[in-house]
Amino acid sequence: MANHPSAKTRIKRNEKQAAFNGSYLGKVRTLVKKVEAAVSSKNKEEAQKQFVCAESALSKAANKGVIKKATAARKTSRLSSAIKKI
Q1: pLDDT single digits (tens) 31-60
Q2: How many structural domains compose the chain?
Q3: Contact of 1 with 24, CB cutoff 8 Å
């Protein structure tokens, strides 16, 4: 256990940030799954609507450091190409 006050503060801040990152990542995953579900049901309009939300969430997550920028770009690209194939 940390004994120094600054170390104790870091532990608390790290826990808060980890909770935020986890909840935001869950939100992103849900939005990506909604796009994938619309693609699998061959509903292009719905997929495009969901894609706009998912793309925004992915880019925000990348900018906040929740996920890597390359991961966000890869997921966005794959979702986009899946929608185009419908």
Answers
A1: 999 999 999 999 999 999 999 999 999 999
A2: 1
A3: no
One-letter amino acid at 66 equals V
**In this structure, what token pair is assigned to residue 61?**
């997550």
Q: Model pTM? A: 0.86
Q: Are 2 and 11 in contact (CB under 8 A)?
A: yes
Residue with tokens 């935001």: 24
Q: Which residue in the block uniquely carries the two structure tokens 């909840």?
A: 23
Structural domain boundaries enclosing 17: 5-84
* Domain CATH for 32: 1.20.58.110
State how far the Cα of 13 lies from the Cα of 11, in Å rounded to an integer: 6
pLDDT value for 1 = 74
Closest of 11, 24, 13, 20 to residue 59, by C-alpha: 24
